[in-house]
Write a structure and sequence with these properties.
mainly alpha, three-stranded antiparallel β-sheet, two-stranded antiparallel ribbon, 22 helices
Length: 697
């Protein structure tokens, strides 16, 4: 009973209440509003405007049996820029477009004899490439009238890369990529068209490489996961050796640098050329041929080496504490294997947030009804001066009507989306709300993961007898406890970070828009502002992280936890710096080991330098053998980062618990130490009384 009482005093899991209720309510209201915005966007938006192109009648291509859109005369897409850019916003390519089942694969041009009076149009045109409402078999129009009204194309070319197109046919998915900014102005220049098809060809080859090697890519990523897992578990045994080897390795590199600088200085000591004779030059090699340069390097390296040696001598105890905490963290992770896979939950939640934001932004951007207006492409030649460009039209009925038959060049052109409705007038505000809510949700998800992991690892530290006193399912308990009591505190910390990120986004936007107009002084001030807010964001992330640990331990509100964590760290600033640097050094080495090792293995395998017995994989099967290697390296880094982020959180949590343990307890029966025997031995402390087993390894 005494043990339970002391546990409650130190780590009050059972004595908790809801914290930062006002911020919790505000966060819930924002989430409900975010859901309402998504529903409105879903009701009024139509992403088909972005995903699929339209033909000249306003119908979507890519839905059904006609996946491609065919342009009669793509040159008009380019020449219309200068003709009408001053009067229209967002031009559709001003040539007839039809949905087709298959793009042309041959060259074809209308035979000049087709213009003879007795020529029949059906003998020269292809019905499948004509306007759907136009029937070649029943028409009474002459060939010249058909060409002038663009009812059928008078020439086309095969859509292959390496050619400059006079007519063009795009698959709808490709068109949606090309026209991501202005979906109704797909044709910019011939070089863009050629590059788009080259990109498609390269993309197909890369896809083929993935199809041939995906099993081996997954195998390499599994190896990266296993290596990361084993590295963390083995740290409890190899951490002391690794830390001292890395430290003395840095000192050895510095010592060699000093020797090399002295050797170079001795070689150039008799030289009569000094650095003043060289002056200022961009040729760095000249500076390396004078003795003053090597003397400066020698002095700098000697000072740095001396500082490192003094630091090692005076901070050796703190380095031992850092090593012991790293070993203890490895033990904690070994008792809570599920924590290593928690980043998957965070990843899924982040993917949900990003997907919801992207879909909402897409539906909001397409929530207005497309507005079409009548435009005369050749108003002077065709006597179409009466068309002002303000008359609206319906592309589905325009080309079948005779309202503008007196103007052959009249076209129904997409101008913009309707912005006259209540929703459309507030689209910008809703998009801003979408971004702010998205950032808040992202920061909240990260905070939830940090607080849940901190609660699990804290329950390990404050167990009197490890591992028997460790709670059952500690991660699940910490996750539920965090959601039940501390949503408001996490939302509070996430909101502060979100506001700073919004300011940074605004500064980046202003810098991008005014970069050319700013003078050097203004640009310097802008850089200073961006740098200050970058530093502020890093500090807030550091403060929030430790505040969440204190929330997980004591259940206080965000402000009190942040204050207590900050003051506790400031009272032990030297220990904080040493532990942080030692941990960073170890985890950097671990990431280098995982990413470098798996990357080298992937390079030798996919390049064909090594083969596995019984494997049917050959490097000749790949078009670009470096693509699987890049995927493996990036994937290995993400896996290592996920595993090591959990380990880093464990180290930070145990460190704060250790500092609290030192300040609140004295080793008596009433206030025993909860740290491990190794830490007590380093600090020359022990538990007094009949229960000396507390804090055992």
């Amino acid at each position: 009973m005494l043990k339970i009482t002391m546990c409650v005093i130190v780590f009050p899991f059972s004595v908790r209440g809801c914290t930062d209720i006002i911020c919790c309510v505000l966060f819930i209201v924002v989430i409900l509003g975010y859901m309402a915005v998504g529903i409105l966007a879903w009701l009024y938006g139509d992403p088909r405007h972005v995903l699929y192109p339209r033909n000249s009648t306003g119908m979507f291509c890519g839905i059904g049996a006609q996946p491609s859109v065919f342009y009669f005369d793509i040159l008009k897409c380019v020449t219309s820029i200068n003709i009408m850019a001053g009067t229209l916003n967002g031009l559709q390519c001003p040539t007839t477009q039809v949905c087709v089942e298959k793009c042309p694969d041959v060259f074809w041009a209308l035979n000049p004899i087709a213009y003879l009076p007795k020529a029949k149009p059906q003998d020269y045109f292809n019905q499948s490439l004509c306007v759907p409402s136009f029937d070649l078999a029943r028409t009474t129009l002459k060939v010249k009238d058909i060409v002038d009204q663009e009812l059928c194309p008078f020439f086309y070319t095969p859509t292959i890369s390496g050619e400059c197109y006079s007519s063009c046919c795009f698959v709808s998915k490709k068109l949606s990529v090309i026209t991501s900014v202005n979906m109704y102005f797909p044709c910019v220049s011939c070089s863009d068209i050629v590059n788009s098809f080259k990109a498609k060809e390269i993309g197909v080859r890369i896809f083929e490489d993935f199809a041939s090697s995906w099993q081996w890519i997954i195998a390499a990523l599994v190896i990266a996961m296993v290596v990361s897992f084993l590295f963390l578990l083995l740290l409890r045994f190899i951490a002391p050796v690794m830390v001292w080897v890395l430290i003395f390795g840095v000192l050895a590199v510095g010592a060699y640098g000093i020797y090399h600088c002295w050797w170079e200085y001795d070689n150039y000591r008799k030289s009569t050329v000094s650095i003043t004779d060289i002056g200022f030059t961009t040729d760095i090699k000249l500076y390396l041929q004078v003795k003053e340069t090597w003397l400066a390097f020698l002095i700098i390296l000697s000072v740095v080496e001396g500082i490192l040696l003094l630091t090692l001598i005076f901070l050796r105890t703190r380095i031992l504490i850092a090593i012991a905490l790293i070993q203890e963290s490895s033990k904690a992770v070994s008792h809570m294997m599920s924590t290593l896979f928690y980043p998957l939950i965070t990843f899924v939640l982040l993917v949900v947030c990003v997907a919801y934001w992207g879909i909402t932004a897409l539906y909001l951007a397409t929530s207005g009804i497309p507005v079409y207006k009548v435009v005369a492409l050749n108003s002077t030649r065709d006597n179409c001066g009466q068309i002002s460009g303000n008359e609206t039209c319906d592309p589905q009925t325009f080309y079948n009507s005779t309202d503008y038959s007196w103007c052959p060049s009249a076209r129904c052109i997409f101008i913009k989306y309707n912005n006259e409705g209540l929703l459309q007038r507030n689209l910008f505000n809703l998009q801003i709300y979408n971004v702010v809510a998205f950032l808040w949700c992202i920061n909240f998800v990260i905070a939830l993961g940090q607080c849940s992991l901190a609660g699990a690892f804290a329950s390990y530290y404050w167990a009197l007898n490890k591992p028997s006193d460790i709670p059952t399912f500690p991660l699940s308990q910490a996750f539920i406890r965090t959601l039940r009591y501390h949503v408001g505190s996490l939302a509070f910390g996430a909101l502060i970070l979100t506001l700073i990120q919004i300011v940074r986004i605004i500064l980046e936007y202003l810098d991008h828009k005014t970069r050319a107009a700013l003078n050097p002084c203004s640009r310097f001030l802008m850089c200073c502002l961006k740098c200050c807010f970058w530093c502020l964001e890093k500090f807030i992330k550091f403060l929030n992280r430790n505040a969440y640990i204190m929330i997980a331990i004591y259940g206080k509100n965000f402000c009190v936890s942040a204050k207590n964590a900050f003051m506790l760290l400031m009272r032990n600033i030297v220990r904080v710096v040493v532990l942080d640097k030692v941990t960073d050094l170890l985890l950097f080495f671990g990431k280098l080991l995982v990413v470098g090792g798996v990357g080298v293995l992937a390079f030798f395998f996919f390049s064909g330098r090594i083969t596995l017995p019984g494997s049917n994989f050959r490097t000749e099967m790949l078009n670009y053998y470096w693509m699987p290697i890049i995927v493996v390296v990036v994937g290995a880094y993400l896996i290592a980062h996920g595993f090591f982020s959990v380990y880093n959180m464990c180290v930070d949590t145990l460190f704060l618990c250790f500092l609290e343990d030192l300040e609140r307890h004295d080793g008596t029966v009433q206030k025993p130490y909860y740290m491990s025997k190794n830490l007590m031995k380093i600090l020359n402390k022990k538990n007094r009384g009949p229960k000396n087993g507390k804090g055992k390894d």
